[in-house]
Fold this protein.
Amino acid sequence: MNRLAERASDSLARVYDQRFRISVHQWRILVTVREYPGLSATAIAARCALDKVQVSRAVTDLEERMLLQRRAVARDRRSRELTLTDAGMALVQQITPLALEWETTLLAALDEPQRKQFRDPRRKKSSRACPCICGPLCASRTMARSIRREIRPPGAFL
C-alpha cells in the first residue's frame, strides 16, 4: 500500500510539474497556508513533516512567483506570517478539482478493504515518504473539505 501511495504521489507530482510548474512540496505548502493562513515557515515544516530547508526554498520560490507573501509579525519581528496571494488562491482552486478527480480514479481501482487500508491512519504514520500518505492527494482532500465548508448551505451535506 505504501508503494501504491508513493506511485500515486509521483504520478500526480508529474502533472503538477508539467502543467502548473509546481512541486509536491510547494503544493502542500500552498494548501497548508490556504487552510491555516498566517503560519510561519517553521510551523508549516512541522505540520507537513518537511525539512525546514525544503520549506524555505519552496516558500522563496512561491513568493518570487507571487503565489505567497510573507509579512512580519508585530509581536515578533523575526517571524514571518505566510498568506496566499490572489494568484496563489487561484492556483490552488485550479489544481484541487484535478487532484480530487485523480484521487477518485485511483481509489476506484481498489476494493473496499484496500481503500480502508490506503486511508488507515496507522499506515500513514509509518510511511517515510509522506506522513499524510501521498501529499498531493491528502492535501487535496484537506482543501476539498475546506471548499465544501465554504460553499455548503446550512444543513446541507456535500
